[in-house]
Amino acid sequence: MSRVGKNPVVVPGGVDVQVAANLVTAKGKLGELTYQATDDVSIEMKDGKVWVTPKDEGKRARAMWGTARARIQNLVKGVSEGFTRQLEITGVGYRASVQGQSLNLQLGFSHDVNYPIPAGIKVVCEKPTSIAISGADKQVVGQMAAEIRGYRPPEPYKGKGIRYSDEQILRKEGKKK
Protein backbone atom coordinates (compact mmCIF):
# COMPACT_ATOMS: atom_id res chain seq x y z
CA MET A 1 0.00 0.00 0.00
CA SER A 2 1.48 3.31 -1.09
CA ARG A 3 1.29 5.92 1.63
CA VAL A 4 1.78 8.70 -0.92
CA GLY A 5 -0.48 7.26 -3.62
CA LYS A 6 -3.56 6.69 -1.48
CA ASN A 7 -3.96 10.43 -0.83
CA PRO A 8 -5.66 12.48 -3.55
CA VAL A 9 -4.13 15.55 -5.17
CA VAL A 10 -6.24 18.56 -4.19
CA VAL A 11 -6.58 21.05 -7.04
CA PRO A 12 -6.53 24.66 -5.74
CA GLY A 13 -8.57 27.48 -7.22
CA GLY A 14 -7.12 29.05 -10.35
CA VAL A 15 -5.73 25.73 -11.60
CA ASP A 16 -7.43 23.78 -14.37
CA VAL A 17 -6.60 20.05 -14.52
CA GLN A 18 -7.64 17.86 -17.45
CA VAL A 19 -7.30 14.06 -17.42
CA ALA A 20 -7.45 12.21 -20.75
CA ALA A 21 -6.54 8.51 -20.53
CA ASN A 22 -3.20 8.71 -18.67
CA LEU A 23 -2.26 12.23 -19.84
CA VAL A 24 -2.66 14.89 -17.16
CA THR A 25 -2.58 18.56 -18.17
CA ALA A 26 -2.47 21.35 -15.59
CA LYS A 27 -2.94 25.03 -16.47
CA GLY A 28 -2.38 27.86 -14.03
CA LYS A 29 -1.05 31.37 -13.71
CA LEU A 30 2.57 30.20 -14.20
CA GLY A 31 1.96 28.20 -17.39
CA GLU A 32 0.91 24.77 -18.57
CA LEU A 33 2.53 21.42 -17.75
CA THR A 34 1.72 17.87 -18.84
CA TYR A 35 2.54 14.42 -17.48
CA GLN A 36 2.09 11.10 -19.29
CA ALA A 37 1.61 8.32 -16.72
CA THR A 38 2.39 4.67 -17.42
CA ASP A 39 -0.32 2.10 -18.17
CA ASP A 40 0.15 0.56 -14.70
CA VAL A 41 -2.04 3.21 -13.02
CA SER A 42 -5.41 4.77 -13.70
CA ILE A 43 -6.03 8.46 -13.09
CA GLU A 44 -9.44 10.07 -12.59
CA MET A 45 -10.79 13.44 -11.49
CA LYS A 46 -13.56 13.56 -8.84
CA ASP A 47 -14.87 16.54 -6.87
CA GLY A 48 -11.85 18.80 -7.52
CA LYS A 49 -9.37 16.06 -6.59
CA VAL A 50 -7.18 13.82 -8.73
CA TRP A 51 -7.16 10.17 -7.66
CA VAL A 52 -4.45 7.72 -8.75
CA THR A 53 -5.04 3.97 -8.35
CA PRO A 54 -2.97 0.96 -9.44
CA LYS A 55 -4.52 -1.32 -12.08
CA ASP A 56 -3.21 -4.50 -10.43
CA GLU A 57 -1.21 -5.62 -7.39
CA GLY A 58 2.11 -6.06 -9.24
CA LYS A 59 5.31 -4.56 -7.90
CA ARG A 60 5.69 -2.11 -10.80
CA ALA A 61 2.08 -0.94 -10.50
CA ARG A 62 2.48 -0.23 -6.80
CA ALA A 63 5.75 1.64 -7.45
CA MET A 64 4.24 3.76 -10.21
CA TRP A 65 1.20 4.52 -8.02
CA GLY A 66 3.15 6.77 -5.65
CA THR A 67 5.35 8.12 -8.43
CA ALA A 68 2.41 9.20 -10.59
CA ARG A 69 0.68 10.86 -7.64
CA ALA A 70 3.85 12.78 -6.68
CA ARG A 71 4.42 13.92 -10.28
CA ILE A 72 0.81 15.16 -10.55
CA GLN A 73 1.19 16.99 -7.22
CA ASN A 74 4.32 18.69 -8.58
CA LEU A 75 2.42 19.73 -11.74
CA VAL A 76 -0.37 21.31 -9.73
CA LYS A 77 1.98 23.07 -7.31
CA GLY A 78 4.25 24.21 -10.15
CA VAL A 79 1.55 25.96 -12.18
CA SER A 80 -0.01 27.58 -9.09
CA GLU A 81 2.98 28.54 -6.87
CA GLY A 82 6.14 27.52 -8.71
CA PHE A 83 9.41 26.18 -7.35
CA THR A 84 12.50 28.10 -6.23
CA ARG A 85 16.04 26.94 -5.55
CA GLN A 86 18.55 29.25 -3.83
CA LEU A 87 22.30 28.98 -4.44
CA GLU A 88 25.04 30.78 -2.51
CA ILE A 89 28.57 31.45 -3.75
CA THR A 90 31.46 31.54 -1.28
CA GLY A 91 35.01 32.46 -2.23
CA VAL A 92 37.18 35.48 -2.99
CA GLY A 93 36.39 36.80 -6.47
CA TYR A 94 33.55 34.34 -7.08
CA ARG A 95 30.39 36.04 -8.34
CA ALA A 96 27.40 35.68 -10.63
CA SER A 97 25.31 38.01 -12.79
CA VAL A 98 22.47 37.68 -15.28
CA GLN A 99 23.24 39.05 -18.74
CA GLY A 100 20.30 38.72 -21.11
CA GLN A 101 19.40 35.04 -21.47
CA SER A 102 22.55 33.67 -19.84
CA LEU A 103 23.99 33.44 -16.35
CA ASN A 104 27.58 34.68 -16.15
CA LEU A 105 29.63 32.94 -13.43
CA GLN A 106 33.11 34.02 -12.35
CA LEU A 107 34.46 31.04 -10.43
CA GLY A 108 38.22 31.37 -10.50
CA PHE A 109 38.69 29.75 -13.92
CA SER A 110 40.68 31.47 -16.66
CA HIS A 111 37.41 32.30 -18.47
CA ASP A 112 33.92 33.13 -17.24
CA VAL A 113 31.29 30.39 -17.41
CA ASN A 114 28.20 31.42 -19.41
CA TYR A 115 25.23 29.19 -18.61
CA PRO A 116 22.21 29.60 -20.96
CA ILE A 117 18.93 30.05 -19.10
CA PRO A 118 16.23 27.60 -20.35
CA ALA A 119 12.82 28.84 -21.46
CA GLY A 120 10.30 29.16 -18.63
CA ILE A 121 12.98 29.62 -15.96
CA LYS A 122 13.64 32.91 -14.16
CA VAL A 123 17.06 33.58 -12.63
CA VAL A 124 17.66 36.49 -10.24
CA CYS A 125 20.98 37.56 -8.71
CA GLU A 126 20.04 39.97 -5.92
CA LYS A 127 23.64 40.01 -4.69
CA PRO A 128 26.70 38.90 -6.67
CA THR A 129 26.99 35.91 -4.31
CA SER A 130 23.41 34.63 -4.42
CA ILE A 131 21.40 33.05 -7.23
CA ALA A 132 17.63 32.40 -7.13
CA ILE A 133 16.31 29.96 -9.75
CA SER A 134 12.52 29.77 -10.10
CA GLY A 135 10.06 28.20 -12.49
CA ALA A 136 7.00 25.98 -12.83
CA ASP A 137 8.77 22.68 -13.63
CA LYS A 138 10.44 21.21 -10.53
CA GLN A 139 12.70 18.91 -12.55
CA VAL A 140 14.10 21.71 -14.74
CA VAL A 141 14.68 24.04 -11.76
CA GLY A 142 16.50 21.31 -9.82
CA GLN A 143 18.54 20.19 -12.83
CA MET A 144 19.71 23.74 -13.55
CA ALA A 145 20.66 24.30 -9.90
CA ALA A 146 22.61 21.01 -9.85
CA GLU A 147 24.48 21.84 -13.07
CA ILE A 148 25.44 25.30 -11.80
CA ARG A 149 26.60 23.81 -8.47
CA GLY A 150 28.60 21.23 -10.44
CA TYR A 151 30.91 23.89 -11.90
CA ARG A 152 32.47 24.55 -8.48
CA PRO A 153 31.09 22.31 -5.70
CA PRO A 154 31.91 23.39 -2.14
CA GLU A 155 35.23 22.09 -0.86
CA PRO A 156 35.55 20.84 2.74
CA TYR A 157 38.55 22.90 3.98
CA LYS A 158 37.53 26.53 3.40
CA GLY A 159 33.98 25.99 2.15
CA LYS A 160 34.65 27.78 -1.15
CA GLY A 161 32.34 27.06 -4.06
CA ILE A 162 28.64 27.05 -4.94
CA ARG A 163 26.23 25.48 -2.48
CA TYR A 164 22.50 25.28 -1.91
CA SER A 165 21.28 27.78 0.69
CA ASP A 166 20.00 24.97 2.94
CA GLU A 167 23.08 22.75 2.49
CA GLN A 168 25.46 22.07 5.39
CA ILE A 169 29.13 21.64 4.45
CA LEU A 170 31.11 19.19 6.57
CA ARG A 171 34.31 21.10 7.29
CA LYS A 172 37.65 19.37 7.77
CA GLU A 173 40.56 20.47 9.86
CA GLY A 174 43.56 21.73 7.91
CA LYS A 175 47.21 20.78 8.22
CA LYS A 176 48.85 20.80 11.63
CA LYS A 177 52.41 21.83 12.38
Automatic annotation (TrEMBL):
Per UniProt, the keywords (alphabetical) are:
Ribonucleoprotein, Ribosomal protein, RNA-binding, rRNA-binding
- A GO CC term? cytosolic large ribosomal subunit
Q: Which InterPro entries match?
A: Ribosomal_uL6-like, Ribosomal_uL6-like_a/b-dom_sf, Ribosomal_uL6_a/b-dom, Ribosomal_uL6_bac-type, Ribosomal_uL6_CS
GO MF annotation terms: rRNA binding; structural constituent of ribosome
User: Which residues does the UniProt record annotate as the domain Large ribosomal subunit protein uL6 alpha-beta?
Assistant: 11-82, 91-164
**Domain of life of the organism encoding this protein:** Bacteria
Pfam (any one): Ribosomal_L6
**Biological processes per GO annotation:** cytoplasmic translation
Its function, per the record, reads: This protein binds to the 23S rRNA, and is important in its secondary structure. It is located near the subunit interface in the base of the L7/L12 stalk, and near the tRNA binding site of the peptidyltransferase center.
Self-association state and partner proteins as the record states: Part of the 50S ribosomal subunit.
Q: Which family does the UniProt entry place this protein in?
A: Belongs to the universal ribosomal protein uL6 family.
Looking up NCBIfam families in the UniProt record yields: L6_bact (TIGR03654)
Q: What is this protein called?
A: Large ribosomal subunit protein uL6
Q: What lineage does the source organism belong to?
A: Bacteria, Pseudomonadati, Pseudomonadota, Alphaproteobacteria, Rhodospirillales
